[in-house]
Design goal:
alpha+beta; Immunoglobulin-like; TIM Barrel; 6-stranded antiparallel beta sheet; 7 helices; 32 strands; 18% helix; binds beta-D-glucopyranuronic acid
């Protein structure tokens, strides 16, 4: 799905601003053609933190805005695109239904060419943010054993972040010409010192159209014409894309009819390869280690709203601390975040919104279908980003038949078998097959909390684990916890050879709370914990990544283990100030990267 852009053949305008919102707790509203009154609401941003009385409201709300068709757009195909609406969206223009979409973090668009007026257009979006067992991520399970963390937090999520709702990313109005480029897929390879850029394009039906592709930048200027829409462009002495040198080339695609350019689209691309080889993860043929974080799109007042300044700030913090990578925990991030990663040279594990999955009724079959929809949409959206080096199909799925993590290893520290549910195994096989088929070039991972008995790992190239030894288990005993984890990681690697990433480790830390000797919740405890984990991970050549949980403190549901309704595992506070651990990690990571 190409991001809208302005060019000599395309136009785009942003409908962000002050909209109106009408809450509909009884689901009786019928405001498809618009409503009078309601409250003012800023788009993009979640509603929860903007409107005091609606903080915990997760039901139905109707959004509305009006717009005029920009001058000169008539004659083009016209679309409205929603970059993110959480969770269900149903959309009407001038009282006519355009369609619906499920899932909070991936874009969708509607063709409004035949419906849009020159003036006085009323755009209405019915948003529903209810937590339900058959949604992904699921909720509304009230601590049901075996499928949840066993807690009953409020609001009742099956995951550990606040379920912010609303129109959370920009809404764009854009044009495409009547004959248009509809998709571009880029796969790059390296041949000696040449960079090879394989491009596949699609366009609207029509005889007599051909495609011209031009690659420019860093001294390159390669052009090729193609009848089929496919081409292979070779860049001699190519400047490869990497975290140290995130070189981007400009790929210009033109759709041509009889010598006249009818559409034009420009894409920034990076020439790089990513591969798994034995225990190693190779970027451009050389081993790479991922140093970084899990993060959340989360900030006071805007909730999960897209805020360009916050994106810049977070990249600045990650740079400062010496990170080169992050995982989009636990949903795909904004397209703005992805674009900057390409420019700044960050390596991304791109994760679908599948967090807190369970493989029992209710909602089993439906959840599986929604997961596959997300995989299609995520790969379609992000396939051309050089920064995206891996797809994550799930975070901590409850795959085991029994939820009994503490008994997965016996007294003598051998694996005690805890079989996975058949439904989990077949679901992940289907999902991995789909992802491999859609993108044969990037490795897959599944982020497990089950360890060596995780059967879903058989379908993915990279095994990722979340562990909190010395925190949730072996509390107060960092050394004991780290030793135990070290043995566990070795056991996992014996069973599942290949690259391994510790995708989460960390401690809740109250800024300003100090203790010597270090004690849980103190800044010293977090600093020591992270330093010891990193030293242990560094000692294992097959550990290709270390992602601290979390970059910043973030908002959660209310529950007994979340003071302030915050997860305090950030090395930065929610307002982006460093804790002691940030300085410690910086010393280690920057030392490592030179
Ligand atoms: C893991 C989850 C993550 C949580 C974290 C924690 O993947 O979303 O926030 O633990 O408890 O289970 O801090």
């Amino acid at each position: 799905m190409l991001y809208p852009q302005n060019s000599s053949t395309r136009q785009m305008t942003d409908l962000s601003g002050f909209w109106r919102i009408q809450f509909d707790p009884d689901n009786t509203g019928a405001w498809q053609a618009g409503f009078d009154g309601g409250d003012v609401i800023a788009v993009p941003a979640s509603w929860n933190d903007q409107i005091n009385e609606r903080r915990d409201y997760l039901g139905t709300a109707w959004y509305q805005t009006t717009f005029a068709l920009p001058w000169g757009w008539r004659g083009q195909r016209i679309y409205v695109r929603f970059n993110s609406v959480n969770y269900l969206a149903e959309v009407w223009l001038n009282g006519e239904r355009l369609g619906e979409h499920e899932g909070g973090h991936l874009p969708f668009a509607f063709d409004i060419t035949e419906r849009v007026r020159d003036d006085g257009n009323v755009l209405v979006v019915r948003v529903n943010g209810e937590m339900k067992p058959d949604h992904v991520p699921p909720g509304g399970l009230a601590g049901q054993a075996g499928v949840t963390f066993g807690r009953a937090d409020f609001p009742d999520t099956n995951f550990d972040f606040f379920p912010f709702c609303g129109i959370q990313r920009p809404v764009l109005l854009y044009t495409m010409p009547p004959e248009a480029i509809t998709d571009i897929s880029v796969v790059t390879t390296i041949d000696g010192t040449d960079g090879v850029v394989n491009v596949k394009t699609t366009h609207t039906a029509g005889a007599g159209l051909s495609t011209r592709m031009t690659l420019q930048g860093h001294g390159a200027n390669v052009t090729t014409d193609s009848e089929s829409g496919e081409a292979r462009l070779t860049v001699p002495n190519a400047a490869l894309w990497s975290p140290d040198a995130p070189t981007l080339y400009q790929l210009g695609v033109e759709l041509v009819r009889g010598g006249t350019v009818v559409d034009r689209y420009t894409l920034n691309i990076g020439i790089r390869t990513i591969a798994v080889d034995g225990d190693r993860l190779l970027l451009n043929g050389a081993p790479i280690k991922l140093l970084g974080f899990g993060r959340h799109e989360d900030f006071p007042v805007i909730g999960k709203g897209m805020l360009p300044a916050l994106i810049v700030k977070d990249y600045g913090l990650m740079r400062w601390i010496g990170a080169n990578s992050f995982r989009t925990t636990h949903y795909p991030y904004s397209e703005q975040m992805m674009e900057l990663a390409d420019q700044l040279g960050f390596l991304i594990i791109d994760e679908t919104p599948a967090v807190g999955l369970f493989f029992a009724e209710p909602g089993l079959v439906r959840r599986n279908e929604v997961c596959k929809q997300y995989i299609r949409e995520m790969i379609d959206r992000d396939k051309n980003h050089p920064s995206v080096i891996m797809w994550s199909l799930a975070n901590e799925p409850h795959t085991a038949k029994q939820d009994a993590r503490d008994t997965y290893y016996g007294k003598d520290f051998t694996v005690v078998e805890h079989p996975s549910r058949e439904a989990a195994v077949s679901s992940f096989k289907e999902q991995a097959d789909l992802a491999h088929q859609l993108d044969p070039t990037r490795p897959l991972t599944i982020v497990s909390h089950e360890g060596a008995t995780e059967e879903a790992w058989q379908f993915v190239e990279v095994k990722s684990l979340n562990r909190y030894n010395g925190w949730y288990t072996q509390s107060g005993q960092i050394e004991v916890g780290v030793q135990r984890l070290s043995r566990e990681i070795d056991l996992i690697h014996e069973r599942y050879p290949g690259p391994f990433i510790l995708t989460e480790f960390g401690t809740d830390t109250i800024p300003g709370h100090h203790a010597e000797p270090p004690e849980m919740f103190s800044e010293e405890y977090q600093a020591e914990f992270l330093a010891k984990y990193i030293a242990m991970l560094d000692s294992k050549p097959f550990v290709v990544g270390q992602h601290i949980w979390n970059l910043c403190d973030f908002k959660t549901s209310q529950g007994v283990i979340r003071a302030n309704s915050y997860n305090h595992k950030g090395v930065f506070t929610r307002d982006r100030r460093p804790k002691l651990a940030a300085h410690r990690v910086r010393e280690i990571w920057r030392g490592k990267r030179g």
